[in-house]
Amino acid sequence: MKNTAWQRELKHYLIGGLLSLILTVVAFAAVLGVDLSRAATLAIVAVAGVAQLIIQVRYFLHIDLSRQKREDLHLILFSLLLLTLMAGGTIWIMGDLAGRMY
Amino acid sequence: MTQDTPLHPGLNLGAPHGEAHTRSEPVIFGFWVFLMSDLILFGILFATYVAMRNGTAGGPGPLELFDLTSVAIQTGLLLLSSLTYGFASLLLKHGNGQRRGLMIWLIITAALGLAFLGFELTDFHSMAQDGGVPSRSGWLSAYYALVGLHGLHITLGLLWIGVMLVQIGVLGLNCRVKTRLLMLGLYWHFLDLVWIGIFSIVFLAGVA
Question: B54 — phi, psi (to 5°)?
């Protein structure tokens, strides 16, 4: 019983590691390996990055949407909301200012 | 089924660990509060970096300064160290209190982290030699603040691993040591998450 739980969790980590590796290679290859337009390259890097974040949160930090740990999930989601407002607002306003300067 | 109910996000020790498992719940929740405030800190530095992206003030830019080969090696080292810490956590959970394997995986994790730091500092050094010092432009200030803070976190994580190795050796795997190892694991995985943001937004998007 205990061994099977161990194997299952080990497999969990290995899947996470493998998927992260693949996404990292995809992101680096998009920049170094193939000749794409800048917009397409940035889109691939962004999608691979977000996907890898989700993979690592799921497989390394073991966070999913199960019911048992709702308070903790609220903490994480609220922090992400604050982060979105603050980082998004900063980029919007400061980026606009910078755009007017150059 | 109730035995498997997780008490906190992250790897749970599980009911067979008794007190160490139940006592971890409030402590790990508190540690998540810290991690989330740290996330906000990194997020604001990311936003500052993006806003400063074109502020090179006539100085060297990403194309002249970044070495993507080194960044790829650093990314691989950190990802591998995140995985080896996962192996250490699994030995903590299922290893029946055996210390040797756990300590070996922790040492491997620390060695990978140290190698990461070595490559990062070499990069900082060669950038500075090419004129890329923090005071050169707003972009470089933002770069060193963000990437340097991550490197500082890795340094503190390495110290923390060292302290935990001593505690495992001296105190053995008691309740407190187990909880601290869980927190260190969350911290280490979190740093790899931040690094995904750094290599995507700073390095890859910078050179693309």
Answer: -95, 5
Residue among A17, A63, A82 whose CB faces B79 most closely: A17
With b for 16 or more beta-carbon neighbours within 10 A and e for fewer, the B111-149 pattern comes to ebbebbbebbeebbeebeeeebbeebbbbbbbbbebbeb
CB contact under 8 A, B94 and A6: yes
Q: Does the interface predicted TM-score (ipTM) exceed 0.85?
A: yes
Q: Residue A82 and residue B86: Cβ atoms within 8 Å?
A: no
Nearest to B48 among A49, A72, A90 (CB): A90
CATH number at residue B75: 1.20.120.80
Please check whether residue B8 lies inside any domain of the structure. Answer: no
A94 contact residues in B (CB cutoff 8 A) = 47-48, 51
Q: How far is B145 from chain A (nearest CA, A)?
A: 16
Whether residue B10 lies inside any domain: the answer is no
CB contact under 8 A, A83 and B186: no
Q: What is the pLDDT of residues B46-77, one digit of tens each?
A: 999 999 998 899 999 999 999 999 999 999 99
A22, two tokens: 């693949």
Per the CB < 8 A criterion, the answer to whether B6 and A62 are in contact is: yes
Number of domains in chain B: 1
Query: The domain containing residue B81 runs over which residues?
Result: 30-49+60-207
- What does pTM read for this prediction? 0.94
Alpha helices, DSSP H only, in B53-137? 62-65, 68-94, 100-129
